[in-house]
Amino acid sequence: SMYLMNDRFVKNDEVSISIEDRGYYFGDGVYEVIRVYGGIMFTAEEHIGRMYESAEKIRMTLPYGPEEMLSKLTRLIEENAIREGHVYVQATRGSAPRVHQFPGEDITPVITAYTKSYPEVPVVPEPAKLKSVDDVRWLRCDIKSLNLLANVMAKQEAHEAGCLEALLHRDGTVTEGSSSNMFGVKDGVIYTHPVSNFILNGITRRVIMQCCEEIGQPVAEEPMSLEDVYSMDEFFMSSTTNGILPVSEIDGQKVGEGTPGPVTKRLMAAFEAKLP
Ligand code: PDD
């Protein structure tokens, strides 16, 4: 299959990244994951828009603009004949001898992208189990940065406890997941952390907010405490890769009946109706 390497489409064995790439040294870069449904990218403009915003927040100027990025990723998906899958794209600040401060103007960002194909027969995922994990990340979680060490550690901790995802909390206030946003339902109202520097403003989250508006589902963008979550009627998580995924258990305690509740189900139907 083909890869995107800056402005070129290259075969697997032609990809070469410098050992001095700042992504490798520092995680100095940004990324996106975009779902492909039936050969079409879902919310591509939003993802690419967020990527350029993330780049701007770390003061990195990409060598070409969002329109060109969109057409390149579209071509990559076509070249690789992706029907169901995703495209991963990242940009690092480029390759230069290892000093922390930015390299000179002559050093340009390195963009790479690959596609991943999903099995043709979709696997319906089981409701997720969560493990609460202390959110020890930095204070700019709004940036979709390549620096994912705290996310990796949290996910691994959850994984070792037999859970799919970590439920991150700062001093008992639930923020999000290690690679997802989190939502609880209590007395018919959906609760989720407001958009701030403590969470990634998820594209799936945005689609969910839109769905809620359309179906008249009340939402409160208010943080939940870790104590709150154990007594929620329903709970679900959202991400590009999993869409809306119901949660059955948190820290070994069943959420509601442990099966997807009515609010989650209605929302999932509204969400699915938006997919290409
Ligand atoms: N993760 N929060 C974090 C920390 C994330 O890394 C992600 C996405 C989300 C959900 O955002 P979106 O709905 O835009 O995918 C929330 C991607 C999928 C990943 O790292 O693989």
TrEMBL record:
It catalyses: D-alanine + 2-oxoglutarate = D-glutamate + pyruvate. Gene3D superfamilies: 3.30.470.10, D-amino Acid Aminotransferase, subunit A, domain 2 (3.20.10.10). InterPro entries: Aminotrans_IV (IPR001544), Aminotrans_IV_CS (IPR018300), Aminotransferase-like (IPR036038), BCAT-like_C (IPR043132), BCAT-like_N (IPR043131), Class-IV_PLP-Dep_Aminotrnsfr (IPR050571), D_amino_transT (IPR005784). Its EC number is 2.6.1.21. One of its GO terms (biological process) is carboxylic acid biosynthetic process. One of its GO terms (molecular function) is D-alanine-2-oxoglutarate aminotransferase activity. CDD domains: D-AAT_like. GO terms for cellular component: cytosol. Keywords: Aminotransferase, Pyridoxal phosphate, Transferase. It is an enzyme of class 2 (transferase). Its cofactor is pyridoxal 5'-phosphate. It holds the Pfam family Aminotran_4. Homodimer. Belongs to the class-IV pyridoxal-phosphate-dependent aminotransferase family. Acts on the D-isomers of alanine, leucine, aspartate, glutamate, aminobutyrate, norvaline and asparagine. The enzyme transfers an amino group from a substrate D-amino acid to the pyridoxal phosphate cofactor to form pyridoxamine and an alpha-keto acid in the first half-reaction. This is D-alanine aminotransferase. It comes from Bhargavaea ginsengi.
